[in-house]
UniProtKB/TrEMBL annotation:
One Pfam family cited in the UniProt record for this chain: Pkinase
SMART domains: S_TKc
Protein name listed in UniProt: Protein kinase domain-containing protein
Superkingdom of this protein's organism: Bacteria
Annotated Protein kinase domain residues: 14-269
PANTHER family listed in its UniProt record: OVARIAN-SPECIFIC SERINE/THREONINE-PROTEIN KINASE LOK-RELATED, SERINE_THREONINE-PROTEIN KINASE CHK2
Cited Gene3D superfamilies: Transferase(Phosphotransferase) domain 1
Gene Ontology MF annotations: ATP binding; protein serine/threonine kinase activity
Amino acid sequence: MFDLNQPFQWKKCLSALPTQQAGQYVYLITQQEQAYIFKFLGENAEQGIRQSFAHELNAYRQFQTEQFCADFLIYTASNVENINFPIPVINEILVMPYYQTLNIDLSKQFSTDKRIQIFQDICLSVQHLHDLDYVHGDLKSRHITFSNPVKLLDLAQTSQIYEVTRQAEISATPAYMAPELFLGEAISIQSDIYALGIIFYEILMGEKPFMGKNYQDWATQHCQADIPLFATEYSLYQNILDGMLAKLKKNRFSEIKTLINALNLIKKT
């Protein structure tokens, strides 16, 4: 793991420009040929960003002994005052390995059976989080490691299931947002399952089931477009996809265990 007392090299900023303008920065660094991520806030950080980052750090601390939690270190700004950061840093710094994520086309690299197993491993990690009475709130390919066991990244939107209320502002990613989130409802187990449905389609087909150019496009697609049909070779899994991407929460799988059981039944046929 990263050693603050050893030299390291700054490589590049991975944050999108709007995120930087809001005061949050993610940098890729290397130390002894290992890649790591530095995530921190600048002095210009907006209040909402500060609250979200503090929540994320607390979530990592809370789940640090769980298998789905990424390896991490947290330093205070005073710990790193001798390091020449690209900008002045406030509060705390999150450090973790640079994980390979699912943001790759698995459809050309692995057999169908292997990809189904990868998806089941993802489901097990999310189920573990749900079993602790928490929802992730921002599941997407970039937030899931391509590893065994699967790690869940970016815990900034995690919420306790029984404390989630109507949200004034949704911070999830539009490409993975359930229809009800566009209508102002709160995140839930079913919205996590919907996001898993998008990921399931990506794993099998190598592309997203819906496409949009802006927030309104995504809202229209998720709320109104028909669930796409799988190619013939994956037609066995159509009912499972339908059970994840149903427009109404009540028509989706009630829990991930049911989803995993449905996948296991197909494997036995």
